[in-house]
């Protein structure tokens, strides 16, 4: 998140990369490239009902929307109030939930119309959301993932995430993939693959160099952030804040 403190970025500088020596590390093969709105400061991303659902941050530029994967065409969009910094999203039945960064509340939308219907409170910061068949999982930038009741959005417990015994800071955008929680590590090119039963990182995905240098605009292109998974076709998508492209990737063991 573009406005988070310098201290937070320093906390992650060494730990994940050092821990990679003991934990399996995967690299990637680009399967296909799709267009992505370069003006979208991506905070949340998921694939459902044949379309991408995306949320963005920054005051005055935060929105939630549905878009076509192949073309990037916006099918539906709801803009947040100018003062709000939008964060991650997740759909549960007919509801779409969205976090805000430091406002201590999230929005509930009608998933069909994207009209806001309610708010829900939470302490601390809100970063990202994902789900399995029974719960919603929330990140807040710390090594803890909150496990929420999907109806009330109340916290039930927490998952403390570690790699080789060390807490993993700055867990960001989340996605449920084949029984694991994938989490972007803010300000790195890494995704942690987390066992939700133990909180242990069971693998790292290193996406260094994914966005070609020719597509990087200095002062505009921001960090990796955005993971979506199409379970029906086993497709994994990733992008970043203000990136002009979204990538379908296939994981490969790092040599």
Explain briefly what this protein structure is.
Helices cover 4% and strands 51% of the residues. By secondary structure, it is mainly beta. It has one domain: Neuraminidase (6 Propeller), CATH 2.120.10.
3D structure, described in words:
The chain is mainly β and 255 residues long. The chain has one domain: 6 Propeller (Neuraminidase), CATH 2.120.10.30. It has 2 helices and 22 strands. An 8-stranded mixed sheet has the order 16-17-18-19-1-22-21-20, with no helix packed on it. The longest helix is centred in the N-terminal third of the chain and has 6 residues. The N terminus is likely disordered.
Q: How can the largest sheet be summarized?
A: 8 strands, mixed
Judged by helices, strands and strand pairing, the structural class is: mainly beta
| CATH topology assignment | Neuraminidase
Order of helices and strands: HHEEEEEEEEEEEEEEEEEEEEEE
Q: Termini separation (Å)?
A: 31 Å
**How large a portion of the residues is in β-strands, by DSSP E?**
over 45%
Categorize the overall geometry: globular
Count of discrete alpha- or pi-helical segments spanning 4 or more residues: 2
How many discrete structural domains? Answer: 1
- Rg computed from alpha carbons, rounded to a whole number of angstroms: 17 Å
- Looking across the biggest beta sheet, what order are the strands in? 16-17-18-19-1-22-21-20
Based on the coordinates given, report the CATH architecture: 6 Propeller
Strand segment count? 22
**What is the CATH class name?**
Mainly Beta
Name the helicity range.
Answer: under 10%
Low-confidence segments: 1-14
Integer average pLDDT: 92
CATH-level-4 superfamily name? TolB, C-terminal domain
């Amino acid at each position: 998140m573009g406005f988070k403190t310098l201290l937070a970025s320093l906390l992650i500088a060494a730990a994940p990369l050092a821990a990679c020596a003991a934990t399996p590390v995967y690299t990637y093969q680009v399967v296909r490239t799709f267009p992505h709105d370069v003006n979208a400061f991506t905070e949340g991303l998921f694939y459902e009902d044949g379309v991408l659902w995306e949320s963005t941050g920054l005051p005055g530029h935060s929105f939630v929307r549905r878009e076509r994967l192949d073309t990037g065409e916006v099918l539906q969009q709801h803009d947040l109030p100018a003062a709000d910094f939008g964060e991650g999203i997740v759909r549960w039945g007919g509801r779409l939930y969205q976090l805000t960064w430091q406002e201590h509340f999230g929005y509930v939308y009608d998933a069909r119309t994207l009209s806001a219907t309610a708010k829900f409170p939470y302490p601390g910061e809100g970063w990202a959301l994902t789900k399995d068949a029974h719960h919603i999982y929330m990140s807040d930038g710390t090594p803890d993932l909150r496990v929420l009741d999907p109806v009330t959005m109340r916290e039930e417990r927490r998952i403390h995430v570690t790699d080789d015994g060390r807490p993993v800071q700055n867990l960001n955008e989340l996605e449920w993939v084949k029984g694991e929680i994938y989490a972007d590590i803010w300000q790195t090119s890494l995704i942690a693959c987390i066992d939700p039963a133990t909180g242990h990182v069971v693998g790292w995905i290193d996406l260094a160099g994914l966005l070609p240098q020719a597509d990087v605009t200095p002062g505009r292109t921001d960090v990796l952030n955005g993971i979506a998974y199409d379970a029906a076709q086993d497709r994994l998508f990733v992008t970043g804040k203000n990136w002009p492209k979204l990538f379908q990737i296939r994981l490969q063991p790092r040599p």
